[in-house]
């Protein structure tokens, strides 16, 4: 049973502390819901979890082995960020099959088609990416997590641009994945049913305002710089 | 290795699907050379004298222009992030994309070059060496250029900035490439020039993907 | 003295050399010092503004402002 | 403050929490406080040394040394030209070393150093080029020749400019500095290649007899002003770079403040 | 009392019929809520209303005068799409004042500052665009509609990236605008209170499947598209 | 008119705020010229012979490359949509952006040109005419290029290709520009060439904004 955890994570972006002292733990079948206002660091945390962003302090562990500098980590996750990675000149199916094949699917085209069907958009399979509406693109992007297997899904505001029917579909897909032992971490401002998920409020890990001011003032006062 | 080939295949398909992209480099190459008779005047002997240099400079500029977008679309639409997370090492990603790019843009240059040499009244003695030198030199240009393309991701004014970074690094290729042809035209052996050119390519082949991958990783932070 | 300034007939080459070198070096120095001064004043201004801003930010929080943090508190 | 409720740091005790934070963040800047103290201590000395050395150097080069028997008074250009040429190479090498340190050990002061030094290095290179041209006009009868050495200095100048353009081309300054570091390392690998290819290219077409750099063996009356001026340029470089690094550190602070302002 | 209406609108995008036979009418003080699943044509309709997209058939009218080919139309509307038009090197205030001045505000800087205050983000006035978080950028974009007067607001999913407090603010602003005689047309998948708004379900105007196959078959074999 | 000036002011501010942006076009210009001695060889008399042509070709290319982005950022971040909906006519938008762009990139080219002429050993007699010809010619290049920049936005696929089609339209500017200098170097009057150049500018001034505006409207559909 895999466990993915982070301890004492601190994230610094553009010389500004976004969150600090953050711990989390997701077990097989578990889910983590990232909440918090704009700019509290949900996207940053997901990028840290994916290994795209190096935490300034703290460590990530997969089954108690450090997952940073671990070449395998990328293969264990599916990351869906704000960008859709959809090529306008390739059809939806071609787009999806490519990622399925890189993700190690045995039959990329078949897996891709099945994923599109599961997301309720089999009819866009032959449509070039540039003709897709915002929501259709989003569904195509989400289909990527189904087209190749990976235990940990990292989803950044997956419900953006989805209509209600699609949100229900997504909830079903997430439940299924967890029932099969998968893990999920997702951020959202909207309502999404994720039964039994642990909630992580990013704003609780914001550096205190006092810290901020302290940093500023002593750096300035006697000329020690830069937070 | 399978991933590497899949990536090359995808990039080739994208380039061919987009049709014109593949022809742009060669179009620019041709136009750039064709401008010279208008700028310098139509005297045949002057044109013949500068033909090798002009063709090489045009090849440099064409390579630069088309390299600008090597990683750009993948960066902007998030594909590069996903590639970084995939099982393919970043160095292989750089190499695969550069290879696909060279197949699509570099090869047409090599084909078009003799025709342009004819236009500029170059002597026939130089044709073979011209093609050979371009065949060795353009992959080197693509490799060196890929470093610049990776470095300028996310920068403002990517295109012109790229030329500023990379043109100084291109100069050795230009010197030996044009030198080989001049040697042939002056009945000297082009061999040492070509060997040096090959040496540059051999050095760029491992180094460029390393530097390019380092630059890409930073771009994704 | 005039002879010295004539530089053996090469005045037009020698003095511009010294002049341009001086211009470049002094220019760089002045630009650097001014840059530093500029940063210092900006920093002073920004830090001067902070104590004023902080109370405002607090009242903002009270009325459920803006930057969103309080809203998330409600959410949680 | 409502924000701090539930924050593990602030719930402990704010002073200690903030000082802990303070230290972690400071570490990233290799304690600029120490750097700033050090630079404040060095700066008066280096600035003073620059002034003294320049006065002595200028006196020696303008009055204290004889005209060359061949080149006449134009030889006085040498006392600017040659030290500037040395500095152009010296500064670039230092920047490349700093880039390696910045990339490998992630030492932030090394990053800032390369960025701060670049304009100064470019300035020295420009001085070398311009004074060389001004020297060439009377000596060779032309402002510019595509000689190997001249050409490689010109390319060095472009490498400087490319680095500066790259560093400033990003919205986030750290990104610019990191990209610049990679470029500096690629550039330093390339410098010997350029040097070698340009040498070869040039000798193919143009016999080196026209342009000979060496000239007469250097007499001690010429060597002294040269060395003093070179030293003066070095101390000048140290002083200006210290100023510029400090400005960079302050710029970071301003950025941080702006950001926290953005956060509200 | 101005009236903005469209009759028998048909929209064709990339050889595909998106909606057909669509009528709408907004009066002074009125609001139009565009609903419908992904790909049903909400964004397309808003672009048609703005005059950015030419309808394939049908006409738009402002007070019974055709509004296409009417140079004045741009001056009567504020359009907020998915793109934010925020320049990273200009401060929030500079960004906003520029649009305010082009929109004909008498005192651009003052109007811009007031708009930022109304949206609850006066403190970002001096901050360059690149430092703004997603939500702050969105608020800055929305502030544009307040910084210069225009009777008709066209908002495409304005709540995306906003946290809940900001959605409440926006609702208040919309109510005020309508109370002053303004008109609003907006699309959304999320909940937003727009009392008395007419709802327009875009999926009701989707071309019948039969039509679709006719149009589609020549382009695409039998892989009919259209959500 | 007020809107026009505001737009020019904003674009200038954007360009200057971004610091290095303004210098990059001129750097490309310089580098492009500097490449030629490496390609053609360092003989002073050959270089002097082709100097005028090389400088003009480089100016063309620099203008082409820097114009590529004229409307791009405004298009990508949605500003162009808003400008289209504003009270300023689209033609004025094109003209304002082109003017700002020329001030920022064209003027430095003119300043840098004499230094490059020096590097290429051009005779002093040509310097004045070179500057004059560039001063008349570069605005024409910017105007013509703005059409290409607008077309690039419109046609997603053939974009860059279309902008290459602009290069042939540059040829008359190139011919008269280089011709003026050659005339001056050969002790002839450069006047007729310069007048023709001015004629081109006068024609481009109304036509380019018209065509550019039409292309932009298409791009926004
Ligand atoms: C733009 C033109 C020129 C450039 C870029 C240039 C560049 C250089 C460089 C890079 C060096 C330092 C070499 C080293 O120490 O390794 C140097 C040294 C020197 N240059 Fe120049 N130079 C130029 C023109 C001239 C001219 C016209 C003369 C005299 C006729 C000249 C005379 C010297 C001398 C005497 C040295 C010292 C040589 C030594 O250290 O042995 N240079 N120059
Ligand atoms: N590339 C970046 N460089 C510097 N700072 C950044 C960068 N991206 C984000 N930030 C800053 O980091 C903080 C956290 O951003 P992040 O995107 O993680 O927030 P979020 O919780 O995902 O917000 P949202 O709800 O808007 O998506 C913000 O203050 C933001 O301004
Ligand atoms: N540029 C385009 N070219 C061709 N077809 C397009 C284009 N943009 C959208 N479409 C198609 O037009 C239809 C309507 O798209 P539109 O963006 O208006 O939908 P929407 O209702 O806004 O959907 P969403 O809720 O996903 O944003 C979709 O089927 C889409 O595939
Ligand atoms: Mg986010
Ligand atoms: Mg939409």
Automatic annotation (TrEMBL), chains A, E:
The keyword Translocase applies. SMART domains: AAA. It comes from the Bacteria. It holds the Pfam family ABC_tran. InterPro entries: AAA+_ATPase, ABC_transporter-like_ATP-bd, ABC_transporter-like_CS, ABC_transptr_haem_export_CcmA, P-loop_NTPase. Transmembrane segments: none annotated. PROSITE patterns: ABC_TRANSPORTER_1, ABC_TRANSPORTER_2. SUPFAM superfamilies: P-loop containing nucleoside triphosphate hydrolases (SSF52540). Keywords: ATP-binding, Cytochrome c-type biogenesis, Membrane, Nucleotide-binding, Translocase, Transport. One of its GO terms (molecular function) is ATP binding. This is Heme ABC exporter ATP-binding protein CcmA. It comes from Azospirillum oleiclasticum. The gene is ccmA.
TrEMBL record, chains B, F:
The lineage of its organism: Bacteria, Pseudomonadati, Pseudomonadota, Alphaproteobacteria, Rhodospirillales. Keywords: Cell inner membrane, Cell membrane, Cytochrome c-type biogenesis, Membrane, Transmembrane, Transmembrane helix, Transport. It is a multi-pass membrane protein. The chain crosses the membrane at residues 21-40, 46-67, 99-120, 126-153, 160-181, 193-216. This is Heme exporter protein B. Belongs to the CcmB/CycW/HelB family. Required for the export of heme to the periplasm for the biogenesis of c-type cytochromes. It holds the Pfam family CcmB. It is found in: Cell inner membrane. It comes from Azospirillum oleiclasticum.
From TrEMBL, chain C:
Keywords: Cell inner membrane, Cell membrane, Cytochrome c-type biogenesis, Membrane, Transmembrane, Transmembrane helix, Transport. Belongs to the CcmD/CycX/HelD family. It is a single-pass membrane protein. NCBIfam families: cytochro_ccmD. It is found in: Cell inner membrane. Residues 44-76 are annotated as: Disordered. This is Heme exporter protein D. The gene is ccmD. The chain crosses the membrane at residues 12-31. Signal peptide: none annotated. Pfam families: CcmD. It comes from the Bacteria. Required for the export of heme to the periplasm for the biogenesis of c-type cytochromes. PANTHER family: HEME EXPORTER PROTEIN D. Residues 57-68 have a biased composition (Low complexity). InterPro entries: Haem_export_protD_CcmD (IPR007078), Heme_exporter_D (IPR052075).
TrEMBL record, chain D:
InterPro entries: Cyt_c_assembly, Cyt_c_biogenesis_CcmC, Cyt_c_biogenesis_CcsA/CcmC. It comes from the Bacteria. Residues 1-20 are annotated as: Disordered. Residues 31-205 form the Cytochrome c assembly protein domain. It is a multi-pass membrane protein. The chain crosses the membrane at residues 35-60, 80-105, 117-138, 150-170, 182-202, 222-243. It is found in: Cell inner membrane; Membrane. Keywords: Cell inner membrane, Cell membrane, Cytochrome c-type biogenesis, Membrane, Transmembrane, Transmembrane helix, Transport. Residues 1-19 have a biased composition (Low complexity). Belongs to the CcmC/CycZ/HelC family. NCBIfam families: ccmC (TIGR01191). PANTHER family: CYTOCHROME B_B6 PROTEIN-RELATED, HEME EXPORTER PROTEIN C. Required for the export of heme to the periplasm for the biogenesis of c-type cytochromes. This is Heme exporter protein C.
